[in-house]
């Protein structure tokens, strides 16, 4: 059975939501909820680094709940990409790394993109959709 990705978030190093995408109807958030969740995740991620008893902790990578899992990838620049998925979804780490590569190729290398600002780039949208479908991890509902 294909896994289901509910939402995708990209947060800048300051904790601001710069991209949000709903996949399907399940788990849909309104604008305020998506901003609130991104801010909360950024704060929890930062606090977890400080409170971790393990030296060199990079923050929360997976948060497992009964009805969803949150998977996070943090780049060295501080940008965080995280997805809400169906519980127990395997292989999301590689998808997150692929999404980050697309982010660097089609957003950061775009001469018209202003760093740390919301992402509005057609090539990003197109390549993101292709990667999410191709990776096989996305039995996406709707589109």
Automatic annotation (TrEMBL):
What SMART domains has UniProt attached to this entry? Sybindin
- Which Gene3D superfamilies does the UniProt record give? 3.30.450.70
- Gene Ontology, cellular component aspect: endoplasmic reticulum; Golgi apparatus; TRAPP complex
Q: Per UniProt, which keywords does this protein have?
A: Endoplasmic reticulum, ER-Golgi transport, Golgi apparatus, Transport
**Keyword field contains Cytoplasm:** no
**Subcellular location, in the record's words?**
Endoplasmic reticulum; Golgi apparatus, cis-Golgi network; Golgi apparatus
| UniProt xrefs under Pfam families | Sybindin
This protein's source sits in the domain of life called: Eukaryota
GO process terms (BP): endoplasmic reticulum to Golgi vesicle-mediated transport
CDD domains tied to this protein: TRAPPC4_synbindin (cd14856)
User: Record's family?
Assistant: Belongs to the TRAPP small subunits family. TRAPPC4 subfamily.
Q: Self-association or partners: how does it assemble? A: Part of the multisubunit transport protein particle (TRAPP) complex.
Name of this chain's protein: Trafficking protein particle complex subunit
Lineage from the top down?
Eukaryota, Viridiplantae, Streptophyta, Embryophyta, Bryophyta
